[in-house]
Write a structure and sequence with these properties.
Layout (H helix, E strand, L loop, with lengths): L27 H8 L2 H9 L13 H14 L3 H10 L1 H6 L15 H8 L2 H18 L4 H4 L21 E10 L7 H23 L8 H12 L6 H27 L8 H21 L18 E3 L7 E12 L4 E7 L9 H12 L5 E3 L7 H10 L2 E2 L11 H28 L10 H29 L1
Parallel strand pairs: 1-5, 5-6
Antiparallel strand pairs: 1-3, 2-3, 3-4
Helix pairs in contact: 3-16, 7-16, 9-10, 9-11, 9-12, 10-11, 11-12, 15-16
Length: about 475
């Protein structure tokens, strides 16, 4: 059940300040709260609660505001509730009518907030926030054209719009907080979870435990795990034994299921993941390979895949891969998000079309790295009158020095998207995703991009006041 507020969001003058404390109306959390169009988000959020009975859900401003504060400072759920209880500016930001000394909600409710506010909702909220910021910017509203809710190409322009603006596009990976996957370690974890299922079934139904050789299996695993220099033959020997232990435990589970014993709802998807893991590891062991399609790197998060980065520090990362676009105003948007590896060059045309739907015209230039400069993308940009960064195909032109100067400037301007990656990863939680569910992981990534834009808007307002 959700109860939408009939009145507008509380203003700063309506906030009941604590006795003896005068709050600053220019505080960043106060100004940021006044710039976010909470009412537009609340309409879609209320649709998640069709029932008219039951407990009343917390307002959207409280849910989204709390998550923004958490992503900014990296608070744990319990620490966030403590901070909300102690800080009146935080309480104003999440929409409370006045300062209160009690916690606004229990820490466990934050899990529900992350499940309810999906990545799609956050991406849409990101568009609203960018549009509101652009409409308030007198110097750039005409160029950006994003202050209207309707795309400008639907407003019936008589003449063909001239290409203007810049679109920067690049891809990165948001690594998840998992242990570095090793084959023998994953098999050992699978064995332990299967043994826990067997113990639970035997305990609930009074059955004698079958022989699982768990002590011998644990000893075999530790013998390799504690070895600093691991030979190839020793690794294969350990994997072969762990495969045997897992196969035996799976056979016991199958016998229990055939006998009429059931698994819990939590154990069913876990068993499917372990079966798939065993099949993959058995295939790689028998074929002497380290590659398999849709390879599982985490039992708790089976949707994660290895993402090859090619970087010196981290050649392979494990998390979601996404394409991020940055416009001429410096605002970032997620163009594509996937847990499976993909070629980012396929996102360029869609990103350019999304830019046109927002502004009513194509960008004058698109700044990308080499992987985006495929022949199909070059032809597409040529047809749309968009200049794609990078050297041209064929022999150098007569204005070679001029082209080199333009290419250098494009490379300098393209650094803006790298700056956005660095800022989001170091300051807004994108460097290590700690959520466990697939939907909450995507929501955390979208929330990090949204928070990056929010505080960029705050910085622009600060410099506008100075100059």
């Amino acid at each position: 059940m959700y109860r939408s507020s009939d009145r507008s969001q509380p203003g700063f003058l309506d906030f009941n300040q604590p006795l003896g404390l005068k709050m600053n109306p220019n505080n960043r959390w106060v100004t940021m709260a006044n710039q976010i169009p909470w009412e537009k988000f609340e309409e879609k959020y209320a649709g998640l609660f069709p029932s008219d009975t039951g407990n009343v859900a917390k307002p959207l401003r409280m849910a989204l505001g709390s998550l923004i504060i958490q992503i900014k400072y990296g608070f744990s759920d319990r620490e966030l509730v403590e901070q909300l209880t102690e800080n009146p500016y935080y309480q104003y930001f999440i929409g409370l009518s006045g300062y209160r000394e009690t916690a606004p909600f229990d820490a466990s409710l934050l899990v529900s907030f992350r499940k309810r506010i999906s990545a799609e909702m956050l991406m849409e909220a990101n568009e609203y926030i960018i549009a509101a910021a652009s409409s308030n910017d007198d110097n750039n509203s005409d160029d950006s054209g994003s202050g209207s809710d309707e795309p400008l190409d639907k407003q019936g322009a008589a003449e063909k719009p001239v290409n203007k603006g810049t679109l920067i596009l690049d891809a990165t990976c948001a690594p998840s907080n998992i242990r570095y996957p090793q084959d023998f370690s994953l098999l050992n974890e699978a064995r332990e979870k299967l043994e826990a299922m067997i113990d639970r079934i035997c305990k609930d139904h009074g059955i004698c435990k079958p022989r699982t050789y768990r002590q011998e299996a644990r000893k075999n695993y530790l013998a390799l795990a504690k070895t600093k220099k691991r030979s190839k033959s020793k690794i294969r020997k350990t994997i072969r034994k762990q495969l045997g232990y897992v196969k035996r435990d799976l056979r016991y589970i199958d016998d229990f299921l055939e006998g009429g014993y059931a698994l819990t709802e939590k154990e069913k998807p876990l068993l499917r993941t372990i079966r798939l893991l065993y099949e993959q590891q058995d295939y790689m062991f028998k074929n002497h390979t380290h590659s398999v399609e849709n390879r599982i790197v985490s039992i708790q998060q089976p949707y994660l895949r290895p993402i090859v980065r090619g970087k010196v520090k981290t050649p392979v990362e494990f998390g979601a891969k996404f394409d991020l676009s940055v416009d001429e105003m410096g605002y970032a948007r997620i163009e594509k998000l996937s847990f499976d590896p993909y070629n980012e060059s396929t996102c360029l045309q869609k990103a350019v079309e999304n830019y046109k739907s927002r502004t009513g015209h194509y960008p004058e230039r698109v700044l990308v790295d080499q992987i985006y400069r495929t022949r199909a993308n070059r032809e597409y940009c040529k047809d749309k009158g968009v200049r794609l960064s990078g050297p041209k195909l064929g022999r150098p032109s007569k204005n070679h020095e001029h082209d080199k100067a333009i290419e250098y400037q494009d490379n300098v301007d393209r650094i803006e998207v790298e700056r956005a990656f660095s800022l989001s990863k170091r300051c807004y939680g994108l460097g290590l995703i700690k959520t466990k569910l697939k939907e909450t992981t995507t929501a955390t990534i979208a929330l990090s991009v949204l928070a990056t834009n929010l505080f960029r808007i705050q910085l622009r307002l600060f410099f506008r006041l100075l100059f």
